[in-house]
Amino acid sequence: MDGAGRLTRSLRSLGPQADLKAAAIGAVVLAREYVGAWLARRRQRPAKKPPVIDREPPNRFILLVERYLPRRVGLAATVAILLGSAGFGIVKGGHVEEFVTALSDTRNALANAAGFRITTVGINGRRQLSQDEVLAIGGVNGRSSLLFLDAETVRDRLKANPWIADATILKLYPGRLQIDIVERTAFALWQENGRLSVIAADGAVLEPYVSRRFLNLPLVVGKGADSRAKDFLALLDRYPQVRAVTKAAIFVGERRWNLRLKDGLDIRLPEYDVGNALAVLSKLDKEEKLFSRDIVAVDMRLPDRLIVQLSEEAGKARDELFKDKKTKKKAGDSA
C-alpha cells in the first residue's frame, strides 16, 4: 500500500490458508444441509407395510381348531411323537429290559446319593440258603436303594423259589433291610422217568439230587408219588419193622403202592386198607421171618389171600423136593 511492499507480501502469505479454511467451512455447511434434507424426506416417507398374501378363507373345522385348541399344543404333539418313536424303537429293538434297568439304576443312584443306601441287611430263618443266595433271589444288589425297593416284589421273588415257603420284608429307614424267611425242609427223594429230585413234604421240587447230604432221605418212585408221599410214609412209620427194611416206595398207576425192600423183595400192597396189609406183613416177619426167606415177591392185592413168589433157586429146590416125595410114595405103594 505504501509502496514498500509489506502489506502485499503479508496478503500473499495468508492467501492460501484463508482459501482452505473457507473451503472447509463451505463443505461442512453443504453436508449439513444435505443430511437435513435427507432426514426430512425419511420423515415424510410412509412406512412400508408387510406384504399381504392372499389366501382362501379357512373352513369351519380349521377355524374351530384355531379358536379352541390350547396354545403350544403343536409343541406338545411333536414331543409326544418323538417320545413315541423312541419307545417304538426300544420295543422293536428288544431293549426294553435294558432301558428299564438303566432307568432303575439311575433312580436308585439318586436315592443312594440322598442317603437311602442299604447299609445293613438282616436275614432270619435260613438254613439251606446262604445270605448271598437270598439277596440274589430277592433281586437286592449293591445298586439298590431302600427308598425305591419294592418290598412286595422282593417277597414274591423269594416265594417263587422252591426252598422258601414264606417271607416277610421290612424296610427300616434310612438304610436297614430286614428279611425273615420260612424255609421248606427236604423230605424225600423222588424219581420219575430216570430223574431224581429232592422234594418237600408238600411235594414241591426243591432241587435236582446232586448232593450226598440228602442220601438218607426216603425214596419214592413214580408219577404222583411226590404229592402222595407224605401220607403214605407217615402210615409206613407206624410199622417200623417194615419201614426199616424198605428201600423205596413205588407208586403204581397213580392208585396204589409197592414196596421194594433192601434185599430186592417186592411187596405189592392193595389199593385200599393199606394199613391192615402193613400190619399183616409186620406180624408175618416177626412170627415167620418172612423177609428172610428165599422169596422175590409178596402179592397182597387180593383181600382174602397172600401170594408168595419164590426165587428161581427156591422154586427148583421145591420142585425137586416134590419129585422126591412123589418117587418115595410110588416106591412105597409098589412094595
Q: How would the blueprint of this fold be written?
A:
Elements: H1 6-44, H2 60-68, H3 73-92, H4 96-116, E1 120-124, H5 131-138, H6 151-159, E2 164-172, E3 176-183, E4 188-192, E5 195-199, E6 205-208, E7 219-221, H7 225-236, H8 240-243, E8 246-252, E9 256-261, E10 266-268, H9 274-288, E11 295-299, E12 307-310, H10 312-334
Parallel strand pairs: 1-3, 4-7, 7-8, 10-11
Antiparallel strand pairs: 2-3, 4-5, 5-6, 8-9, 9-10, 11-12
Outline of the structure:
This protein has 335 residues and is of the alpha/beta class.
**What is the end-to-end distance?**
213 Å
Give the strand order of the largest sheet, numbering strands 1, 2, ... along the chain. Answer: 6-5-4-7-8-9-10-11-12
List unreliable stretches of 5+ residues: 1-14
Which percent range fits the helix content? 40-55%
Rg over alpha carbons: 53 Å
The major sheet is characterized as: 9 strands, mixed
Overall structural class, as computed from helix and strand content, comes to: alpha/beta
Question: N-to-C SSE series?
Answer: HHHHEHHEEEEEEHHEEEHEEH
Based on DSSP secondary structure assignment, what is the total number of beta strands? 12
Which overall shape is indicated by the principal axes computed on the Cα atoms? rod-shaped
Strand content: 15-25%
**Mean of residue pLDDT values:** 79
User: Total number of helical segments?
Assistant: 10
General description of the model:
- The protein is built from ten helices and twelve strands.
- With 335 residues, the chain is α/β, with parallel strands linked by helices.
- The strands form two sheets. Strands 6-5-4-7-8-9-10-11-12 form a nine-stranded mixed beta sheet. A three-stranded mixed beta sheet has the order 1-3-2, with helices on one face.
- The longest helix is centred in the N-terminal third of the chain and has 39 residues, at 6-44.
- It is rod-shaped, with a radius of gyration of 53 Å.
